Amino acid sequence: MRPTVTGAATRQEADGGDGNVCLLKSAESEDNMNIESLLATLRLTFIPLIITSQATASTLSSDTPPSPTALTTSTPVNAGSVIKSFPPERAVTTVNKATVEHAAPTQSFQSILRNIPGMNVVATGPGNLSATNSEFTFDGFNSDQVGSTYDGIPIANPFRGGAAGQAGDHALTPLTLGQISGVSVYSGANTPGQSSIGSLGGTLAYSPKQPSQNPYIDVAGSYGMYSHNGNNLSGGVTVNSGTIKSLGTRILGSYNYTDSQSYLSHVFSNINSYYLNIIQPYNNGLSRVGLIVLYNSEIAQAPTLAPIGLITRYGRSFQWPKNVYNNINHTHAMDIILSWKSMLNDYMIGSGKVFIEQQHNNALSYGNASYASGYDGYPLPISLHNLQQTYNNSYNPAAAFGSGFNGSQYQRYLDNIQTVGLRPDITFMLPYNMVKLGGLFMQSADHSAEAFYGTQSAPIIDGYNSAWDEHDQRSFANVYLQDKISLMDGHLHIYPGVKYNVVNTSDTDTTGYFYKYAGTVSNTYEYLEPSIGFSYSPTKHFNMYLNAGRSYKVPNISAYYSVIGSGPVPGAITVQPEYVTSYDTGIRYKTSVVSGSLGLFRRSFNNIFSLFYNNVTGITYQYNSGTALYQGLTADLAVKLPYYLHVTASYGYTDAHYTSSFSGPNGNVTSGMPRPYVPNYTASLGLSYSHNGLYVGLDNYFVGRQYISNNQGTTTGTSMPSYSTLDLTASYKMKINHIVKSLKLSLFLDNLMNANYLVYEQQQTYPYSYDVGQVGAPFYAGLQANVRF
Predict the structure, then answer these.
(1) Which end of the chain has fewer CB atoms < 10 Å from its terminal CB, N or C?
(2) Torsion angles phi and psi, residue 113, rounded to 5
(3) How many angstroms separate the Cα of 465 from the Cα of each of 362, 451, 509, 733?
């Protein structure tokens, strides 16, 4: 949408094998294939054992990806205690359940990804607050170029990409830590069976928190303070029914509240988070239905990019004084997922999901008209207009409030997205392969609007004070065929697949300050996404993989609304979808003591989107701007040491540069120019001790230098300096009695050395050149107590 009114895991390990039958290790495994991976010769007499197994009940409850190992276990499935392992053909790293549980209360569903190789996270705080549209980069790709799923359902913004942060949605929390059990991060092109959309650089597959076999009630509370400014208070309760023996039902429900006063002045977020997960097996354990409902409401003031000169002058907590500029955001995110899965016969498994999603934002920003010419020499992070009565709008700011600037001090922004969808599939279990046929069908609607007014009531009324009032529709429909072929007694696996996609989009805008004429535009894109993968395990401990594929992202909605309004007949939509051809190869090694991996990737990026904001028309324009090449490597290592010590390390290197020259509204791009906001390296190093309820972890995160861009997206000659942070986490869990089962006390010391750094920097070109940035979090100290009944 147009510029708005507001101006970084450990690798989860589970014993696996070389593709042959092995025993189930983890009762918390959450797989994407479940019983699909059973050999066709497996008799149904084993299947009833599923319902008696805690592990199986867990895996049947979710379609999210499993917890990959450093070697070959990617999609384990079980019938009783038997698993058929299918090794991954792609680079996969996980944030496991333990990492989520040890995360500080100041972390978000995206910041817990920071020690994934190649990941650089910008968003901060439990409210997932960001001053920029891109909340992270992964292997050089922005957050709107990386797909996200929850329980196998896409949660990315269907009109702009990214799970959050796009347009004015800088204070939106689609997921909280209490609603997830882990994340699988897939590098490169989607396999056809993955349902994420716009996944050019990879996919973040979030696993829902599952009800367990044994009942419990958890009560938690925490409090902490930043060294310079701000604090964080949170609490909640979780109720788990355990298995209701007469029905087999399991239910998990939770409520959590967070009051976070940011380390940035005046920035805050208040979050109410609700979660429900119900699992109901039937048909003697051969079938199950499930229901997941989550709802996160948030009230927040989002941060804005602040001039580096003012940060230097007033300190790292600087944000504009509230009587000069402020914003307030009322947002909520909701997901309802109804799922079904059933073994149809010896050779077929069917499953389906129906889902409803909402992302709503009602934001009000204020810019003091007295500072229309600037504050301490810098423009405000809001565009103040000397607003006049026009042919399209009868509102007369000068008559109502004395001047056009006074009459546009308050600016209201709406962005309300609703989605309904269906994801069906059927799996055929053959002697040497499994064939999966499925699809995704989803329909999304977006109502976006903005208006100016002189008081905080700031209504949005077409024909009176509306800047724009827009209604968008977008439908995604795809069908895919995915095969998994097992050869050489399970040592070699081949994964061919293809997905056919149809995306239809329409945009309707009424007249307003930014639109002299109303209009409607629409179009349809069709494309194929093929992929092929190989995985070879010559020994139990060693695995090699190779994957190639292509993935697409259709243009953002700005490519549609920008051709409306300048004339009575809308212009043509000329923007073509972005697409990336990906190649990945690597090796993995795993024993009971040491596990590690090394991967190489190459991404050929075509039809790159660029955005141009016109300060006169108030509209953002999107266009294609050439090609680029992303190349790099990722590595990770985990070693178990004596005395219950564990060392982890990760490293990611990325080189990204343009491979063609281009001239456009944003300036000139030359072949060989580096892409902005791509750290040349990311790294992490961790040391932990865990024994008899005591856990102590020390984690160091590193982010290398990265070139910045100007506000129009063109790479500048300036680079952000590298930085590192050091975190210490300690907890002790003790057993109490039969009523109070356990008490866990935790200490969080984040950014222990109080490093002063920028997570984002940008050059502004209007009305003159100066740099703005977002400061990273300072030292934080917090305590948390968890009581289980």
Answers:
(1) C
(2) -90, 0
(3) 17, 6, 15, 58
